Amino acid sequence: MKTVMVANFRFRREAVTAKTVLENAGIPCLVQSAEGSGFGPIAGGSSVLVRPEDLDRARQLLDDAGVIQDESGDDDS
Questions:
Q1: Which helix (H) or strand (E) holds 32?
Q2: 33 conformational bin, left if phi > 0, alpha if psi -120 to 50, beta if neither
Q3: What is the pTM for the complete model shown?
Q4: Contacts for 40 with CB less than 8 Å, ≥ 6 apart
Q5: Half-sphere exposure of 3 (CA within 13 A, CB side)
Q6: What is the pLDDT of residue 33?
């Protein structure tokens, strides 16, 4: 399955939360992490991957759930 990153998180537990949101909406996804099964912070964090055709819907679902912020916002400056 070809995948693209929908979001990256500092903590694996945040990626797992995002995965749950997406799976509950019927979007297949994977969590990719250099930390294995731990839940601590790591360089690079944990990424959630989806099929390219699900990317826009996945971003919207995660934004609506408050799991990620819309990148167009200015609140992190």
A1: strand 29-33
A2: beta
A3: 0.78
A4: 11, 12
A5: 15
A6: 85
Contact by Cβ (8 Å): 66, 59: no
Structure tokens at 3: 């995948």
Helix (H, G, I), strand (E, B) or coil at 75: coil
Position 43 scores a pLDDT of 59
64 CB-near residues (< 8 Å, 6+ apart): none
Please give the pLDDT value at position 30: 96
Closest by Cα among 54, 58, 75, 56 to 67:
58
Query: Consecutive 10-residue runs of the chain (77 residues): their mean pLDDT?
Result: 93 94 98 66 79 98 89 44
